[in-house]
Every structure is written in structure tokens, then in C-alpha cells.
User: What shape does this take?
Amino acid sequence: MKRNSRLSLALHTLSHMAGSPDQVRTSGDIAEHAGTNPVVVRRVLGKLREAGLLTSEKGHAGGWRLARQPQKITLADVYLALDERMVATDETSEASACSIEHALHKRVSSVLEEIEENLVRRLSETSIAEVRGI
Amino acid sequence: MKRNSRLSLALHTLSHMAGSPDQVRTSGDIAEHAGTNPVVVRRVLGKLREAGLLTSEKGHAGGWRLARQPQKITLADVYLALDERMVATDETSEASACSIEHALHKRVSSVLEEIEENLVRRLSETSIAEVRGI
DNA sequence: AGTTATGCAACCGCTAAAGTTACGGATGTC
DNA sequence: GACATCCGTAACTTTAGCGGTTGCATAACT
Assistant: This one.
């Protein structure tokens, strides 16, 4: 795949699930549709389960299901569940001896923080249920 | 180093140069201060030269110098010169057969576009000269 | 018991980026 | 002109992250 593939996979899968929320899907089915591997799917969806967006069941007739109504799951929820910030915050954290570097880092970081918040706010305006209708 | 290191290196170096704009600095000096390698410095600063932010001179007493007044160089100029977008735009561009994926991609991309513009706008509000005084 | 799922750990292979070495070209100093 | 200094660039090595893969334990249903 490519950069961003985890988020793409997660959003894509949840958007599909929003279509028939009660249907159980296996990682194999999902992987096939997404053109990837069941283990990769489980890795990504596992994060979403930790965040309370999905539930999974083992065994025969097991699989994945939405943990809430699709109207109550926003793109921001998914984004945050994967905790991979797209706005790369420059985590040097080495407290460099150089005061200019320090001032610079502070400045840039504050802008990035703001941008990140902005991104999350915008993503939270769309639910995975809405995506289908766009 | 780490992710974002090119931008960090570029901003850090220019901020220093803003302090004494007429001083010539060699890639060796810069690399030593930044804790990296002269070739890496030349690679990064080369981008800035292409963008018209720096000039370089070969030979004895050669080196790097600001191409304009530091007040006229903004953080956005530097960011754009390196053309490495921090807000990763999901360039799948495979026109997948799945309409949901298509709708999703469109939605997310438009948000990311907006965020990217927002970032540039914010970065353009600070010049490398101002950083020193923060 | 047998089948079908997830959960998880270990490993392979690819890719992107920094780091490194090497050499050519330019520009000064002697 | 010989030499030192510095950039420009290409080629290679190293490192880190990630998708992909395999294997096995666990759980649940028939």
C-alpha cells in the first residue's frame, strides 16, 4: 500500500459497516475487499476496538461489528483511535542547548498543535454514516 | 535524526543566519552546529537556494548566505521550499471501483487540503527574523 | 472432535531518509 | 601555476517503519 494506509483501511471498512450495522464481518472478508491481509486488518481494527468503536468475537460465526450506531462514530473518532498524528509534531524533546532552536521549536509546535486541533474538529463534523451519502 | 529533520534543519539554520545576515557560513560549520553531516546540509540548503531563499558560492571563502532580508523570509517560505507536505495527502489516485472509498477519499482530501492551506497561512505570519526574539 | 474465528508474536522484504564516502568543478591564496 | 577550500552530485551504507506472511494459542459454535 502506501502512506496513510491504516487510516484509509479503517475509514473504508467502517464506512462499509455503516451500511448494514448488524452484519458481522470477518477479517478475511474485509481484507479481500480492501486488497490486503487478514492479519493487517486485525491489527488496525484492534486499535478501533480498544477505542470502543468496534467489537470482535472469536470462534465460529465470529467477526467484527460496530460498537455504536454509525451516526455516532465520526471520522475524528477513527483518526484519534489510530493515534498516528498526520500533523507530525516535531518531538525532539532534547532541550537543545541552542536557545534559537528552542524558541523555534516552541513556535512551530504551537502552530502545529493548533492545526492538529483544527483537523480533528473538521473530521468530527462528519460521521461514517454520512460518508455513504456524499 | 528523526522525522521532520529536514524542516528542522532548514528553519534552525535560517534562524541563525537571520542574526548576522551578511556572514558566510560553510556547510561544515552548519553541520557541526546542527549535529549532522555537511552533505546533508548541502542537500537541504540546496532546496532553499532553488527557492531563492539562499545563495551559495563555491571555492575559497565560499559558503551560504541569505538571499533576502530575514524579515522577508517567512516560515512558510521555508516549508514550501522543501515541498514535503506535513499534512499527508492521501494520494491513492487509483480511482477504486468502490464508490464508498471514492466518496470517503474525496471527503478526507478536501479536509486535508483545507488544513494544509491553514498551516501555510499560519506559518507565513512569522518571519525567521522574528523567531530570534520570541 | 472438528471447524472457524480472533489474538499475538516472530520474521521477511520493501521503502524512504539520513548518513557517509568519493570525486569533480569553482574560486580564492600563495 | 600549485594548492587549499568549499560547493555539487552521485553512489553506497545504515536505519526505521510498515505491510505482508506464517504459525500457533485461544475461543466459540456445530
Q: What stands out?
A: The CA atoms of residues 13 and 33 of chain A lie 9 Å apart.
